[in-house]
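Case study.
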Amino acid sequence: MRLPRRQQAPTRPRTVVGMWLRASFLRQDQLRDQLAGRLNGGQKGWNRDEAGVMQAACVLAVNYYFGPGYDVRAITELASHIRETVMAGGGTMHGQLEMEAVIRHALGETDVDVNGINARIAFEVQGIVIAAIAWRSGLAESRIDELITEAERMAFVHGWNPPLAV
Amino acid sequence: MTWQPDRKQVQEEAVGALRNALAVGQEFSEALRGCWYRDTAFATALLVVSLGQRFGPGSDIRLITAFVARIRAARGGPTGAFPSREAEALIRGYLGEVAMLDHVDPAKFSYAELGIAILGRLLEEWQPSPEEVGDLFARTNAVRREMAEGFPQIAQAEDDWFASGMPDSPFATFSGEPPRRTDEEQ
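After joint prediction, the assembly is written out as follows.
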């Protein structure tokens, strides 16, 4: 599945959260940390508008990666891989079942139970899933830009208003 | 010294009660609950056989998710009351993805209660004929024997289960409504 290309759309992310995602996926650590301090207007955490961009980016990324005829076991494999990688590096990770539920929900599975998965868990899982997909797929910088700018566009269309970076 | 009923007899009666209830098409939830708490190994084997028949190897996991959603809907209750993700993981584990069982912590989730909910729904949707019940129980007995031979720790687990009094647990006899008093108690 291809990422959607749109005529006359911005070619680079323009929101704080979009640029923060871009820096994270491109492993631009200094810029990422600098932008992290601007999320949620400089307050701790992030706001709902920024979460809207993250949700849209996750929807685009998982649909791109798994395609329409996916086997759920492939989702299990990706979630296991992410958890093992993070934990091998000494980090802590959310539960396997919660991760699978977040991914499957983003793929549009309505029977999946996401009860008990709060906004913080969803945001964190979505972020690391998108990053893993970008790295595993070897997405070029231009494709990462396409994904994030499209996610920003979707967020605005759905009524979210994520703060612009400039 | 306390009186201990014959374990084999207790198990046979529990399995027999479930078999009879299913064969004659009676309401079977109480018999299923009794069977699970009194002969857990048989009930687990019954679940494995029933799941294999319903979903088969390599089945679309989304069918299992939809099935679990129906359990959740049928049970009602507050949002999130039924642990759907764990129920699905248990089903997938019993269907062969054994690593999924690592994500269902028995200290947090009762395998017995999850098993009862899953098997209850399977049997309710299936409504097996008396012949199918006979065949199902015969296959379950065979699987149970294989499990006992392949996993000697099951026997120890059964010993521990009985020693801890689980067959006489209040959970073994009813769910959702208080037990009726017998004439003797009144």
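Observations recorded in class. Residues 16-157 of chain A form one domain. The mean pLDDT of chain A is 93. We will return to this complex in the next lecture.
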